[in-house]
Amino acid sequence: xxxxxxxxxxxxxxxxxxxxxxxxxxxxxxxxxxxxxxxxxxxxxxxxxxxxxxxxxxxxxxxxxxxxxxxxxxxxxxxxxxxxxxxxxxxxxxxxxxxxxxxxxxxxxxxxxxxxxxxxxxxxxxxxxxxxxxxxxxxxxxxxxxxxxxxxxxxxxxxxxxxxxxxxxxxxxxxxxxxxxxxxxxxxxxxxxxxxxxxxxxxxxxxxxxxxxxxxxxxxxxxxxxxxxxxxxxxxxxxxxxxxxxxxxxxxxxxxxxxxxxxxxxxxxxxxxxxxxxxxxxxxxxxxxxxxxxxxxxxxxxxxxxxxxxxxxxxxxxxxxxxxxxxxxxxxxxxxxxxxxxxxxxxxxxxxxxxxxxxxxxxxxxxxxxxxxxxxxxxxxxxxxxxxxxxxxxxxxxxxxxxxxxxxxxxxxxxxxxxxxxxxxxxxxxxxxxxxxxxxxxxxxxxxxxxxxxxxxxxxxxxxxxxxxxxxxxxxxxxxxxxxxxxxxxxxxxxxxxxxxxxxxxxxxxxxxxxxxxxxxxxxxxxxxxxxxxxxxxxxxxxxxxxxxxxxxxxxxxxxxxxxxxxxxxxxxxxxxxxxxxxxxxxxxxxxxxxxxxxxxxxxxxxxxxxxxxxxxxxxxxxxxxxxxxxxxxxxxxxxxxxxxxxxxxxxxxxxxxxxxxxxxxxxxxxxxxxxxxxxxxxxxxxxxxxxxxxxxxxxxxxxxxxxxxxxxxxxxxxxxxxxxxxxxxxxxxxxxxxxxxxxxxxxxxxxxxxxxxxxxxxxxxxxxxxxxxxxxxxxxxxxxxxxxxxxxxxxxxxxxxxxxxxxxxxxxxxxxxxxxxxxxxxxxxxxxxxxxxxxxxxxxxxxxxxxxxxxxxxxxxxxxxxxxxxxxxx
Amino acid sequence: xxxxxxxxxxxxxxxxxxxxxxxxxxxxxxxxxxxxxxxxxxxxxxxxxxxxxxxxxxxxxxxxxxxxxxxxxxxxxxxxxxxxxxxxxxxxxxxxxxxxxxxxxxxxxxxxxxxxxxxxxxxxxxxxxxxxxxxxxxxxxxxxxxxxxxxxxxxxxxxxxxxxxxxxxxxxxxxxxxxxxxxxxxxxxxxxxxxxxxxxxxxxxxxxxxxxxxxxxxxxxxxxxxxxxxxxxxxxxxxxxxxxxxxxxxxxxxxxxxxxxxxxxxxxxxxxxxxxxxxxxxxxxxxxxxxxxxxxxxxxxxxxxxxxxxxxxxxxxxxxxxxxxxxxxxxxxxxxxxxxxxxxxxxxxxxxxxxxxxxxxxxxxxxxxxxxxxxxxxxxxxxxxxxxxxxxxxxxxxxxxxxxxxxxxxxxxxxxxxxxxxxxxxxxxxxxxxxxxxxxxxxxxxxxxxxxxxxxxxxxxxxxxxxxxxxxxxxxxxxxxxxxxxxxxxxxxxxxxxxxxxxxxxxxxxxxxxxxxxxxxxxxxxxxxxxxxxxxxxxxxxxxxxxxxxxxxxxxxxxxxxxxxxxxxxxxxxxxxxxxxxxxxxxxxxxxxxxxxxxxxxxxxxxxxxxxxxxxxxxxxxxxxxxxxxxxxxxxxxxxxxxxxxxxxxxxxxxxxxxxxxxxxxxxxxxxxxxxxxxxxxxxxxxxxxxxxxxxxxxxxxxxxxxxxxxxxxxxxxxxxxxxxxxxxxxxxxxxxxxxxxxxxxxxxxxxxxxxxxxxxxxxxxxxxxxxxxxxxxxxxxxxxxxxxxxxxxxxxxxxxxxxxxxxxxxxxxxxxxxxxxxxxxxxxxxxxxxxxxxxxxxxxxxxxxxxxxxxxxxxxxxxxxxxxxxxxxx
Lengths: 875, 875
Description:
The structure is a homodimer.
Chain A: H1 3-21, E1 32-34, E2 39-44, H2 51-64, E3 71-80, H3 88-102, E4 109-119, H4 120-129, E5 153-164, E6 178-187, H5 194-200, H6 207-220, E7 233-239, H7 254-257, E8 265-268, H8 275-287, E9 293-299, H9 306-313, E10 319-322, H10 334-372, E11 389-395, E12 398-403, E13 407-413, H11 416-419, H12 425-441, E14 450-451, H13 453-464, E15 473-477, H14 480-498, H15 500-508, E16 516-522, H16 531-534, E17 555-558, E18 562-566, E19 569-573, H17 576-579, E20 589-590, H18 593-596, H19 605-622, E21 628-635, E22 639-640, E23 646-648, H20 650-662, E24 667-670, H21 684-688, E25 694-697, E26 709-713, H22 715-720, H23 740-754, E27 762-763, E28 768-769, H24 775-783, E29 787-793, E30 796-801, H25 810-824, E31 827-828, E32 835-839, H26 846-874
Parallel strand pairs in A: 2-7, 2-8, 3-6, 3-7, 4-6, 8-9, 9-10, 13-31, 16-17, 16-21, 21-24, 24-25
Antiparallel strand pairs in A: 1-13, 4-5, 11-12, 12-13, 15-26, 18-19, 18-23, 19-20, 22-23, 25-26, 27-28, 29-30, 30-32
């Protein structure tokens, strides 16, 4: 680091790490807001560009528009500095009152302005200013109960209201009464950036607290208190402070701070010299956080800034011009607001129609999806429209989904979107910027015989990371399935090269069709859906003739021993075949999960049982004269994912690998699911203390945002393909091999996971994740009568629901009703038969995990009780 | 569009389309610049933040640093408005002279300032100002030869120079003499945004012209004239005008304008209130164009803006603070420059070390790549380090590659990076922003039973576009190969449902293993490298036992008739089998390419020949009692790509499809290569006037930036999978199914290709691309003795080099030496055996294509002559 920046780095160390790690980490209560009316956020490309004038103008045009229904305009200012001298909510309130006094509306309007909380110094200033308060009528100027509300912020009971009589309203109100509600959420006294003011006035507010307050403000007006406003037209406007990327009170940039809501935006641009650039850049910062910008509006300075802006926006974003704002405010801007009225009306119309368009689209999406999609692994007949989840966005681990009752609500993505997800909110933002950068820098570029930085950097990270100690080569492809096909091709060639006799045979018979190469695999394993990957899986309904008539199942499939916690105790469960062969001396129960991974078990009698069982199965293929041979071993180390979240006894896998390696059978680890801290360790291979010859990675590798897969290989494997002819090379490739965006995403994600500055879960000494799923809670769950077994490992928490003997199908019905309840609790889950699971990212806080697990515990407990009842009745 | 924006849209229509389409379109000469010394661009987040002070400060710290070698600091100001009153190059020149006069350096410095071109009015003002000119000595103030240089810009021979004697230099110069060279490229008189000044002064300069001039300025100082500076330390600084996204003279935003060079950036930020936001947004706009930012520097206003900035940048970008700039310039800022000296020295060091790091990395990349990559389709033994291409970036159709002689040079990506590429420069920028937005909004989200906007919008576009008239369902996957595996699964199930007897058989034998389902395919076709896709291809070295021991070739492979231009005439070439059966009445030559596609040919005698040949091959599988049946037809419509860019007679494919459809054999079109205007039409299916039951798309679909594939299906195919059980559904999926970024890229790209406002090549009435490859030039090439045949269709131009009978291998050697020459000409090409091809994007201008084709023509012509010689010698 440079000299000068080092100086600041010191100050950053003081408050920095907190600065960028606390964002959203403690946000538990979940974002939600109604979609019954528009809610917009007003942003600006710089300070002092007239956001508040736009808010005020909008309130006037909205509330004065002729319509028979009553109207409600809510203005929220979450963060106000320079308070109470400056108060944008007071400005909007007063300008509106002035305007209406000057130009009365036909109907009455009830206007109010209030302040919720302020720093102590700001609150004292309020006292000095003798601000109006609630319940004392208009004009009464006493402040009460400036009680402390923690973190140096105090409640401020500062309130003013006015009823503006309509020109056509009789003494007994006939026409509907409209409302203007202005609110400041938090005020600080110094007229500086909120993060500075909050620090200096020792009145901090965490992002999660601020968002909770904002949620309350958005929700309170919509239900409950103002239920009489049900038939009214409502619009909410939230005005930010400063520019789009100005820090909020915690130091988080506001565009990041408000991101969980992802409300549509109005951008107040800059009409001055240099303003084109500032407006475009601010727009791009908003886009880079996933915001939709409904309109850009700015003050005309006669520089025709609108021309290049319209060119830039093409037809996507309307650009509106406000008349020049007079420097002289003597007439209280009334004539300016009058002059601007058509522009504001136009802006309001854009906001209303854009909102309408969006909500209409959200409503029709389920039907359209049912009509046009062909979902994978889905029987469409079983998915009626109302079961379709409309995902409007994702922020970190959470989906924002549209509920048909017209709410946007948050759901924790507990299936980690098919086990791919890694990002927290900060990583998602960084990935988004990196994706923009990489697309702009490279798009995609041809890979063979070429090199580009993201591919090289990723290869280096992989060989030094998940491939450390054995891998030296990186082969890129697009997904786990293609990575497996490549791995099998590598392994078979390697195997043939080790078996000269076979190789001679192949050379003699160029088609080699007499040689029947098989893979050794475990029953219950899953390696992908393309034919070559399917062939390495044991027959199942997923591989049947109806699914793929070409499938033959070209493997020897072994039944492995599994491990889980049963009723609070870790136990090995032996397959039938071993049951009959065991001596009874074998240790099958363990005090802790760690004990299971200990290498000391290698000398146990269980190890002998495993070894003899494995050899028994291998022998026919090792010494036969026939040409049916085992050309590769393929396993998912530690946990079989699609096979029902089954943990295989690591001892068994270690012995299996050893036996194959000693017989020159190349070993493939399918770490597509298990890689990159999915199970708490960078690779699952580390956990079983084995090294493969070939390993496949995908899913979490790119942070879960974009497809990319790699097949790592040892130098020995690579060298088998070396020769004079291209025909000896591995002739397998896909168009987007090593595409720069995928590589760049992977580089960022892998670095993020393994840096304890960014991944708070990382125990830097052990290179392991801390325990994410509360062990005590897991134990409690394992003891529930409805639960057969539990397994918590790294980011995975799996719970198998008990199937009751003859009562077939009961468990799955039970599971689906359980998941329905958990869905209502905000957990998006998908079962694997009678196994339910929660999966978080490597950076998800243990607090969040505990919070989720408590919900699961409560629901299973509740259901267990329901379940017991009918059993008793039936007896 | 809204009312207000409609007003501006009118003015946009006047100059708008030009505005955003001419960017880089006419840039032919290619970007290149030396990497022997650093070249930086100075950007700012707004106007008036002190870019020129930074440039001046850098010149002082660079030229005054103690070192034995001579130094050269070149300052370039490409665009200057307010000229000649304002001249940043004069400011840098004069401040430097003042500074050195005040604080002499130990050695002499030769300083100069010049202006190249200006608008007529600015040039007249120069005359009035009596500016110093070249060759008249210092201080002589006459302007000469203000000759017109087109577009209202005139040459300005405005020049001043000074020799600043060193404090330690004797009368006979012993110590090295350093240089400060300041240059303004273009000046306009009005002090407004360059695009406005250029318009008002009627002195436009196109982007390509400006970039050419900049290239000259960057190159001229490095070679030739100043060859005596070879051992000196050199640094170039280019100062932009206004903010990062301020328009340049043509109206293009400067961050877009300079993008082809992608020079490293120094960002001058904003230390004022609101400056955090402006600085971050400007940084993000630069990143969104693929720029690397080496440092951020800004004036300290006491607001501690550096703290949130350092937090935002983490450790990636150093942040430097400049002392407050005095409002009073009375001492000519000399004391300010003195105070800032350490900061500028630090900035200079960052610039030098960052440059060194980058060039070192570029140098080691080839070796590292050879050591760690395992390239697909590549025999590593045949790729020595020096053959590795280091791709530093891509801009539209061009790579920027690092040449070992330390140049960055441009190469046209004539293989369209494995046939994926679609974007022009504008589309690439838009895709980059969309990628950032989509990653921020969604990352990736689970797809089955869910819907998100990009997936739905894409599905709608596909069904209304390439699937129009037949497709109703969209199945997502990751690449062409997986899309084909899915298609085959669909087709087989469809086939079984149509053949009750077989279906009963399958039901009786759950494994169905007695039924041998085959695909009907054309020899020479290619469908991907996963096993299922490979099985649909005819045996070849690519499918041999060594490559995939599991391959059997489960198809019936027909030899198709092909079409190309031979010696200026379009001819059908019949396969051997048909040769013997033809009547002699068949029309095999055509006047034009269009004639070949005419449906009138359906009644020709050639059509009968085709039909009988096809039936002859089908019969054994249609009526046999055996269980070997054809379950699907799969073809690449119109052109087989990997098979050597062979155009199949459309008549033959039409008849083949008809025969299969009439026998309920489902038809799959593999449009992975041919789709999305690759061949000049949105889908190749349109060109043969057939509709498949299933079709696969990928490659161009996402604009060539990110992997995504789809399998489209008719409703009839979809319904076959409908039932009560999930087991009847299509159980095939990949983790990133319908990932939002891929879908969003596809939505943007497809819309871009098919909108004649963005794709200038689109003939809107016919929905076809205009002819991109000059027909006359193609004809000339076909007549060259070394050429066997040519084929130009849409974005594809293929040329087969003649193989001479026994002289096997000659053609491929010939091809590789030809490509080596074309590589030197700036064309990045990869051959397919003895076929070379050029592939552009759907939006590439015919000018660019002609320019490329001329080079190819010249080289083949040249080689043909070389080739003829040895033949004569041998005779």
